[in-house]
Amino acid sequence: MSYPFNREQEIEACAAFLQSASKIAVLSGAGISTESGIPDFRSSNGLWQKEEVREAITRSCFSRQPERFYYYFSQLFLSWTDIKPNQGHLALADLENEQGKWVGIATQNIDGLHQVAGSKQVIELHGNLRHAVCQKCGTAKVMNGIKEKLENKMIPLCDCGGILKPKVVLFGDPLDMQEFRKAQIWMAQADLIFCLGTSLTVTPANTLLQHRRHDSKLVIINLEATPYDREADYVFHAKVGEILPVIVQKSQTGD
Ligand code: CNA
């Protein structure tokens, strides 16, 4: 096997992987959505840089001090209401819908942008911002329906009086194990895996890579180095939106 050295050759090699792949699994993270204007955990201007925010958006804070939780959570939620998918999300949706590829996306994101772009097989490992669930009676409500309460700095309540909790996996919450197992199976079945815009430092999401087949191909696109770079066939320390659409397009046209 020969190893190309320049980026164009690497992109062509990934396009060839893509062309011959029958099952493609994707693990995406906050970095795929920064080009839609949502800061990741590591951005210097991100809300997460503030320690009080990291402490407040947790299960224990929600349980003990819901007003403090919602003070910070509302800032996050209300700043994400007019976001749109970018070229990275759209390239994945094209693979599935235009090229007819089997694509399974396990995302750590809670922004729902893969589905807005048109991807159909999406596992939201950390939940989503579309719904909130009553902690007393279990009724699910659409988050947009409680937007006004959040704008008015009120704690959203269910009709039964219970507090509504956004359907996101907070620090201290367990993952949906059924969904997680499904993501493990996708990783084990895939012959090509893309890790897109994730630092691959958050467990257990990053352990999904341990389930991949030894003969599968691994391509990482992330601005900074990840602990899995050495295991990858190709690594691009670049923006997802700059690299992925080119790989997808080349895999289709061959030029
Ligand atoms: P992370 O740990 O913040 O890592 C993101 C990675 O993306 C970093 O290594 C960046 O260098 C990289 N990056 C940033 N922009 C780009 C880009 N345009 N192209 C390529 N790489 C880029 O985020 P992870 O997803 O790895 O960690 C998981 C956390 C982050 C999950 O719990 C998420 O719920 C949480 N999160 C999600 C969102 C969202 O839903 N959009 C936003 C912020 C945080």
Automatic annotation (TrEMBL):
EC class: transferase
Annotated positions binding Zn(2+): C134, C137, C158, C160
Tagged with keyword Translocase: no
EC number, as in UniProt: 2.3.1.286
Pfam families: SIR2
Keywords associated with the record: Metal-binding, NAD, Transferase, Zinc
Gene3D superfamilies: SIR2/SIRT2 'Small Domain (3.30.1600.10), TPP-binding domain (3.40.50.1220)
Keyword check for Cytoplasm: no
PROSITE patterns listed in its UniProt record: SIRTUIN
Record-annotated active site: H126
Domain of life: Bacteria
Molecular function GO labels: histone deacetylase activity, NAD-dependent; metal ion binding; NAD+ binding
Residue span(s) of domain Deacetylase sirtuin-type: 4-254
Family matches, as PANTHER family: NAD-DEPENDENT PROTEIN DEACYLASE, NAD-DEPENDENT PROTEIN DEACYLASE SIRTUIN-5, MITOCHONDRIAL-RELATED
Name of the protein described by the UniProt record: protein acetyllysine N-acetyltransferase
